[in-house]
């Protein structure tokens, strides 16, 4: 009796063991990262700017509105003060009468106050009617207080000088008035363009008239 020493034939591969053409190779499991996990987000990420600390538009400032009214009031006072003390051609009368000058100063200041107050109320609605009156009173009182302080300082400076400083002081007041009006206009949120064509024409006429009056006053200051 002999032992069967013939080699065992290799097992034929089954159906599951035969590789299929085009089949995807198994994806190996990712190795655990030893360091900080890298972000898989794209390098260009659109951030939501609404949550940024400086993304909110700046609301109109009540102090800016008061500065704007002060600038208009001081500008009207300076130019009318110069025109009421300057002779018209022929030197028979002044360029502007005192009554007209008072009306001009009051009208322009009231118009500036109304525009600034409406802008403030349109942006932040008051809770009660009393808040509306308080806001309007604040703008008016601060503007008048600033105007009185500037006029007082100019008067003291003019009296303290050894020679007449009317021309330089008037020029400084005019420059201060224009700067305050423009700066306060920006802080008060009044730099927006008019919505209708009628408002644009009115704005152009106002700017043209203000520029013309300022130019005449400037010439008179230089001439004096």
Describe this protein's structure.
With 224 residues, the chain is mostly helical. It has one domain (62-223). 58% of the residues lie in helices and 0% in strands. It is built from 5 helices and no strands. The chain has helices at 62-83, 98-123, 129-160, 166-187, 197-223. The protein starts with 61 loop residues before the first helix and ends with a helix. Residues 36-57 have low confidence and may be disordered.
Shape by Cα distribution: globular
Individual helix count: 5
Report the mean per-residue pLDDT as an integer: 77
Order of helices and strands: HHHHH
By DSSP, the count of extended strands is: 0
What's the domain count?
1
Helix content: 55-70%
Distance between the termini: 146 Å
* Beta-strand content: under 5%
Low-confidence stretches: 36-57
Query: What is the makeup of the main sheet?
Result: none
**How does the helix and strand content classify structurally?**
mainly alpha
Topology:
Layout: H1 62-83, H2 98-123, H3 129-160, H4 166-187, H5 197-223
Helix pairs in contact: 1-2, 1-3, 1-4, 1-5, 2-3
